[in-house]
Amino acid sequence: MQRSVFFFSLFAALQILVAAQIPPATCQQAAPNQTVLHLPSANVSVPTSPWGLAYVSDGVAFISLGAFVGVLNTSTCTSHLIRTIKLPKYSIHSDGSTDDNGAAELTMSKNRKEVWVSLGPGAIVLDVEKALCGHEDAIIGELITPMFSSATQIVLSIDESYAFISQEYGSNATRGRGGVQVFEVNRERNGTISGIYIGFTELQYAVNGMALSADGKNIYVTSEATLASLMHHKDRGILSVLDVERLKFTPSKALKVSVDAGCEPVRVAVSPDGSSVWVTARASNHLVVFDATKLTTMQHYDAQIATVQVGTSPIGLVFVNGGRQIITADSNRNNFRNATTGLTVVDIDSALSGKQKFARVHTGLFPRSFSLSPDGNTLLVSQFDSNAIQSINLALFSRGQKHHAL
Ligand SMILES: *[C@@H]1O[C@H](CO)[C@@H](O)[C@H](O)[C@H]1NC(C)=O
Ligand SMILES: *[C@@H]1O[C@H](CO)[C@@H](O)[C@H](O)[C@H]1NC(C)=O
Ligand SMILES: *[C@@H]1O[C@H](CO)[C@@H](O)[C@H](O)[C@H]1NC(C)=O
Ligand SMILES: *[C@@H]1O[C@H](CO)[C@@H](O)[C@H](O)[C@H]1NC(C)=O
Ligand SMILES: *[C@@H]1O[C@H](CO)[C@@H](O)[C@H](O)[C@H]1NC(C)=O
Ligand SMILES: *[C@@H]1O[C@H](CO)[C@@H](O)[C@H](O)[C@H]1NC(C)=O
Predict the structure, then answer these.
(1) Hey, which of 92, 216, 319, 352 would disulfide with 158, CB 3.0 to 4.6 Å?
(2) Residues 337, 338, 340, 344, CA torsion sign
(3) Is the pTM above the cut of 0.85?
(4) Is residue 6 part of a domain?
(5) Highest mean pLDDT: which of 26-30, 313-317, 335-339?
(6) Which residue's CA is minimally distant from atom 5 of ligand 3?
């Protein structure tokens, strides 16, 4: 008996020691310089600041362009804009003023027939075929709740019958806290999509990034700062794990756990094998990596498995090359004079074994979001302040990676 207590205490002490080996990411202004990685790339100019991106096929992608969504022909090396589709404009404030944030991140349905656009009070759904052909009725759904105005990202449940939308600043009733807006999704016989508003999960401040766990049971959500950190004049945020079944019926009770995720965590992605969860901590210039299993157990306090230095103010992140590398969009959105923008390419195995190797690809101003082509050979990057989309050819890089770890 005493013996097992002793071993239990030893085990607990060892766990704390192990946990202490990976200190939480601290805040950092300009990131250290990195070696340059040259990959073939081309730019296409667009009429306004581009944000979300979503490939339909290797030859076509959608992009968010403020009050419009654009259709991009990506079948040649230099992609070009085929057309734009005007989005509804919502008058949401009591004084009649409208929300000007425009379209944020895009989400593609699994069958690639619907594009979900994050916009102000919720989600706009476009029919891909109709949008490609330029039909006037391409907008087939408006899932909105007037009390919200800051939709950033949409995650669909695994069977796509629920939509979860991050509302960065919440509503007039949440005292500045953001959270997740929940809709039940109905696909009508006439091809339209409607939603029943279920409710809201209130989290901490500036809620943006979301990702579904591999088994579809949990949603990971970032909050840039907690109340406690703001009281200490710091923006230290969290990664929260929400229970999907609870989100469907009682969103206010869906929060399972929250863990420290560095300074201003803003986006999250799950590794293709589902085992790890990667967060961009924008004001830490780091990726903060968690063990997906531990996040949902009593050991969540010990779930952080690595922190990886990247460039300045990373936002978007994407797994490439079958999950062997992850690329971050280092936005330098605060325009530190001693920093540059870039795309950091991180080798996953090296990063997780502590032998970090990374290199930076040149890009434009305020790189923000990514979409990887279905064949994995082309990466699109939105350059928000350059009014351009960069198209990077990964084909040779991926082939080279099979022989030489980065
Ligand atoms: C990084 O490189 C840039 C451009 O070469 C240079 O201007 C800057 O001083 C460097 N920063 C650091 C911290 O070394
Ligand atoms: C994209 O451009 C190529 C080359 O100009 C053309 O052959 C193709 O039909 C275009 N695709 C669409 C969907 O417009
Ligand atoms: C919040 O806004 C909604 C919709 O504009 C309004 O009906 C509601 O009364 C407001 N609530 C508060 C607490 O101000
Ligand atoms: C489609 O069906 C739904 C539900 O029956 C209905 O509310 C909607 O008005 C219909 N839309 C069109 C364009 O026919
Ligand atoms: C970079 O510039 C910021 C101000 O923009 C300054 O506070 C910081 O100390 C500088 N960092 C380095 C490494 O030079
Ligand atoms: C794309 O544009 C950025 C700036 O907007 C520039 O730095 C980069 O060199 C351009 N790349 C190509 C291939 O033209």
Answers:
(1) 216
(2) negative
(3) yes
(4) no
(5) 313-317
(6) 147
Average pLDDT over residues 206-235: 95
More confident residue, 102 or 210: 210
H helix runs in 291-388, sequence order: 292-295, 348-352
Q: Which ligand is nearest to the CA of 332?
A: 5
β strands within 38-108, DSSP E: 41-45, 53-57, 60-65, 68-73, 80-86, 103-108
Let me know if residue 4 belongs to a domain. no
Asked if residue 403 belongs to a domain, the reply is no
- What distances in angstroms separate CA 136 from CA 84, 133, 140, one per listed residue? 11, 9, 10
Closest ligand 3 atom to Cα of 94: 5
Q: What is the CATH number of the domain that holds 248?
A: 2.130.10.10
Which range marks the domain in which residue 40 is found?
23-398
User: Can you give the pLDDT at residue 92?
Assistant: 53
Nearest to 373 by CA among 44, 60, 37: 60
Our count of domains for the chain comes to: 1
More confident position, 9 or 197: 197
CA of 171 to the centre of ligand 3 (A): 8
Atom 4 of ligand 3, nearest CA residue = 147
